[in-house]
Amino acid sequence: MALPKRIIKETERLVADPAPGITAAPHEDNLRYFDVTIQGPDGSPFQNGVFHLELFLPEEYPMSPPKVRFLTKIYHPNIDKLGRICLDILKDKWSPALQIRTVLLSIQALLSAPNPDDPLATDVAKHYKENEKDAQRVSREWTEKYASQ
Amino acid sequence: MHFSKTYAQLLLTLPPEFRNNAFEYRKLKQLINQIVFELDSLGLAPSFLRSLHDHGPEMVSRMSRNITDGTLTVDSESMSGASHRQTIVYEIVWNSSVLQPRLRLSSSSPSDVPIHRNSIPSTIQPVCHVNLPIPERSLSHITQALLHTPIIFGDEMSLINHSMESDQPDDLIIPLPSDMAFFQLLTSTLSSLSGYLNMLEQGFNPVLTTLAASISSAARPASSSAPRSFSPYSLAADHSMSLCPGPGGKSDLCTWREIFRLYVEAEVFESVSESTRGERSIEEVEKHLELFKGHVQEKKEYLVFPRSREAFAVFLNLNLFILNVKKFQLANSEATRKILKKHTKRTTLPIPSCLQERDASTPTASSCQLALITRPSKSLPRLLVQAIGEVLLPIIPHIDDYSCLICASIAFKPIRLCCGHFFCVRCLVKMQRRRMADCPMCRAHTVLQANPSNVDYGLLNLMADWFPIESREKQHANEREVVQEQLEALGITDARICRIM
């Protein structure tokens, strides 16, 4: 099945004009599968970390959202051990007008603003709610340990 | 290489009318030499002044921001510790629309500061000045020098008047005629320059409008080249007819669209990419302009009308003109910066920072009065590039303004939802089948309500008229997709069967 025009256009722009702190490159043998890196935002406990993710565009895309997962271990209340991300636009708030670029920017923003009230990793969320400073310290440690280049 | 040489060489590459309005860099340099000579004869040789900087407490550069009441704030820090200090102040006053630089020698006890000069007449107000604290014994040396060199001032001697500023009777005011000539030449050059640039801008716009008119007359939509065969879309019309533009209808629409697309993509003057956003350097502009010319070389052969070819030449010339203006403006601001730097270096009279401020982010009464910094808040080349973007490029509708956000192709046929957003009919059909109710743009629950009455016929006509090829292709693609879906519904999934049909 030929790649839809929309995916070709999105890929071209992602490669030619990447968003700051974000890279996304399609696999040669599967143009719907992307290797993604996101730099930890400055001022967050994930600063200086480079996180690897995988992104897959299902057949239904853009009618259904891309599937995105962290490959790098990360201590974040909305990201679980398997790297799954709790983000509304990847689920029920998906809109076909959103793009790979906007999704990745949203994930980058999620690193800056963890939301422990809507947790995926309940233990991390609990830690963040009870002692934010200490939780951030652990996030920094994990960033140092797993996400440094 | 000396800057004056670089500057002169650059001017030679520009059209002669630019040259006539250029900086008299050499003359300004000569004036600086005269200032040095003048200071020398005052016993204030730059080397002497420099030694004051080096040994005295930190030099104070002050300027009065608040010119209306003439209040001067004095950095009392630098005055502390000295019971009785004599200072020499380099100040520039704004007097009857002329910048008058002068030196003020004062011996004042600390109790006199901060000084409130509310009594200064409004015509003579120090705009900025610089303090040079000097050792006590040096002052007598200077005063002696002064007494021995009355000749320099000629009839301006009367200005060295102890009682000129009533509140500081002990102050000696020394006018600096060469310095004044320097600032006069500089300000008059800068103001005539800004006048010249204004003139250039005003001359640019009519050329652009004429060009826009001539291109639009050559790049007509499908309807104008075959007026009889065009029938507007409506619920009742025969749709298969109106998508075909009349045969033999000549228009440079597609070629011009392609040329403009290449121009926008070349991002000649300003980059819009995430990492390098902003105005480009001269070298970058030249490079991207060449790239554009290279890409467009082949396309422009397709221009049918002679007036299109002429218009293209004018278009290229406009871009070259903007490039020249950019070069000229950059060289001039560099010249200003360099000459002021040279002034400071040679005379050791520090030019107060308010004269050097480049951006007018904090416009104050004083900075408005200083003709030195009447630089346009926006660069002229930028304004001209904007004018191209606003006047010229929109005369040919751009496909991006008419594409469906979901499939990224032209939104044909366009369905306008009740919330005002439009998408192509195929994408909305797919959304309805999946019971997706929210508008992809605004999340209003308008998708499921859409029905054939939501077809935007005005937009549809415009698309068929201005994008005949794209609309036709999208229409065919839509039809193929429908057939495919029907086959799939029947259980036939091999795509090849569909092609045979």
TrEMBL record, chain A:
Residues 2-148 form the UBC core domain. The active site is at 86 (glycyl thioester intermediate). GO terms for molecular function: ATP binding; ubiquitin conjugating enzyme activity. The keyword Ligase does not apply. InterPro entries: UBC, UBQ-conjugating_AS, UBQ-conjugating_enzyme/RWD. Its EC number is 2.3.2.23. It comes from the Eukaryota. This is E2 ubiquitin-conjugating enzyme. Belongs to the ubiquitin-conjugating enzyme family. The lineage of its organism: Eukaryota, Fungi, Dikarya, Basidiomycota, Agaricomycotina. PANTHER family: UBIQUITIN-CONJUGATING ENZYME E2. It is an enzyme of class 2 (transferase). Keywords: ATP-binding, Nucleotide-binding, Transferase, Ubl conjugation pathway. Pfam families: UQ_con.
TrEMBL record, chain B:
It holds the Pfam family SPX. Residues 404-443 form the RING-type domain. Signal peptide: none annotated. Keywords: Metal-binding, Zinc, Zinc-finger. GO terms for molecular function: zinc ion binding. Gene3D superfamilies: Zinc/RING finger domain, C3HC4 (zinc finger). SUPFAM superfamilies: RING/U-box. Residues 1-357 form the SPX domain. This is RING-14 protein. The lineage of its organism: Eukaryota, Fungi, Dikarya, Basidiomycota, Agaricomycotina.
